[in-house]
Every structure is written in C-alpha cells, then in structure tokens.
Amino acid sequence: MKISSNLVGLFMVLLGFILCTLFYVSSPGTFDDNYSYVSREPDLLIEKTIYDMQINARQSNESYHFDNDDFMQIQTNVQKRRKQILERGCYLSSNRLTHLNMAIDPPRNLIVDDKNQLIYCFVPKVACTSWKMVFLQLNGFLHPGKTLPQYFVNRPGLKKLSVLEEYTLPQRRYILGHYKKFMFTRNPYSRVLSVYRNKLDPGSTFDRAKKWQNTLGKVIASKFKDKKSITNTSLTFPKFISFLLQANSPDNRHWKSVYDSCFPCDVKYDVIGRFETLETDAKYILKLIGKGQTIHFPQAEQSSPTNSSKPKVLKEYYSKVSRRDMKKLYAKYKLDFELFGYKEMKFDKS
Q1: Nearest 5°: phi and psi at 223?
Q2: What does the CA dihedral 146, 210, 125, 112 come to, rounded to 10 degrees?
Q3: Which residues, other chains included, contact 22 with Cβ-Cβ below 8 Å and sequence gap of 6+?
Q4: Are 253 and 261 in contact (CB under 8 A)?
C-alpha cells in the first residue's frame, strides 16, 4: 500500500517533536563555532524540522507541504507545551508573583476587537507595532496589505482601537471569559538589547531615537560616566544595563517584564506567541479567527527592526557586560525566563 508523502512527513515531524521533548534539558544554551545559538526548546526545534523538510523537498523537486489541518494540529501541540511550561512556572513561583484582577483593574495594553472577539496584550519590543497594524486592518481602519509609519500606528492608530479599560466591569468580565486572548513574549536578552539599539544606540535608525538619546540617554550616561570618558553623552550598552539594574530605576513599559505587562498567571491566554516564532504564531492566530486568507502579518521593516535576536549581535553586545551584571539581569527577568521556557545564556568575552 502506497503511503502519501504528506502523511510520512507529518509522522516524521511528530516523531521529531517527541524526541525533542524527551531530550529537553534545563542547562543553559550555548553558541557553536559560528555563533549560532543552540536552542533546546522543542517548539523551536520542531519548526526548524518543518523548515528543513520543506527545503529538502524543494531541492529534490518533490511536492511537499502541510495542509491546514496538519498545521493547526502541530501548532495546537506547540501551544499545549507552552502552557504546560507556564502553568508549572506559575505554581513554582507562586510566592514571588504579583497579581492583578484584569476585570477590576485592567492595564491599558489590552486591545479588544469585538468584531472578531479577540483580546491582545501588547508588550513593547515584541512586534507590538505590527500587531497593532493587524488590528487596524481587522477593524477596517487600514486596508489589508497596507502599512503605516511606526509613529502613526502607535499614536493616532492606537487611539482608534478599543482597550479593555474603556468597558464597564460587567462587559470586561464577559470579554475576558468569552473572547480569545493572546500575548507574545520574547527572550529577555534580545528584548533588552532591542530597546537599547532602537532607542539609545548612537547608530539607531529609529526616527525618534535622538529624542530618547537627548533625554534619558544623557541622564544615564552622565550618571554612569567613566572618569576617562571624553563626553557624558556616550551611552554604552553596559551603562544601560547598569541603569536597568538600579533599585530605583524607572519601570518603563519598554523594558518592563512581560510577566508584569500581561500577568499570564492570572489570565488564561488561549495563545502564547513567541517573537522567535513570530510568523508561524501569527499565522496560527489569524487562522483561529478565520482571517488566515485575508489578513497577512506585516513585515518587520515597518517597525525599525534592530536584528537584536541574531546570535552574533547578542554576543557582540553582551560580551561587554560584566558577569556580575549578567547575573543580576537574569535575576531581574527571572520570571520571564522561567514562565516562558527561555534559558540563561553565556556570553564569553571575545
């Protein structure tokens, strides 16, 4: 009996998922000789397996693809594992958690789409500008496929969208209990670096970077000025890290922990997306609400990408941070590491 290539492919992916889970370990991630980060997270490995199988199929001129049912089943399994990691982390960290009743005291970063019965908890530096554009498209404020400059998305554009805070208490309770809820997380190392490279790095291409550098940047640089420095306006990445680690450092939303932004131990999210698997997770969410054919996730170029997730870039910046501050940084974002399955990484000096 002849077995279809798609069925064999699906079997291999599921087998790979099982093996990845069995060999999953909690030791820190490492870099290989080419500065490629070796991840031990099964859901990232399974997506690499899918990608490799598709590339191999193209090279051998075979017809290979996952149909919609296969894709949704695989992603459902990925979500199940992420939720298991989160639930275990919430249980083990219960004595360290701050809590929030979203219905009574909702933060302003919960976007509500009544038309599609969808709630999104957005976190800066985790593709939130792109997701806001998606919500503008879903609600008819922006034609599908069209984009807007970053400033207009996050200012006038956001004002056109509804947030949970604007609803009455009974409405909030209904929405939280009946709408699909999703959030996105990101490796804390790359998220913190993205803030610096986007807002404070002298080489930033962000159109409002100068404003950040002339205000917060100068304050930080002056406070941590090296006596040998020529100018107090040169803010290095190690200085920025030292600033974040101060006890009285302002808890700006751009570097506020994902946990304290979305409270995933208090809200049962239907989908926990990752910046590292952004396109796949976005595709899954849009298919869940029946918009997979009409709405496509915007490209990163529209929101001043910093490439801060690339292993070589991470190593370039973090190898300059002292080991003492690296340990403190991990402690600061420990909940994000533990609840979302990210691993402590070592960045040896070059």
Answers
A1: -70, -35
A2: -60
A3: none
A4: yes
For residue 66, give both structure tokens. Answer: 């996952």
Residues, the chain: 350
- Rounded (10°) angle between helices 188-195 and 237-244: 110
20: Cβ–Cβ under 8 A, 6 or more apart, which residues? 42, 45, 46
Q: Looking at 202-269, list the stretches that DSSP marks H as alpha helix, in order from N- to C-terminal side.
A: 209-212, 218-223, 237-244, 258-262
* Predicted local confidence at residue 320, as pLDDT: 94
CA 199 to chain centre: 18
Q: Indicate whether 179 pLDDT > 70.
A: yes
Q: Is residue 124 within 8 Å of 254, Cβ to Cβ?
A: yes
Statement: the pTM of the whole predicted model exceeds 0.85: no
- CA–CA distance, 47 with 43 (Å, rounded to integer): 6
- 149 exposure class (CB count in 10 Å sphere: 0-12, 13-18, 19+): middle
Q: Which pair of structure tokens corresponds to residue 265?
A: 């131990």
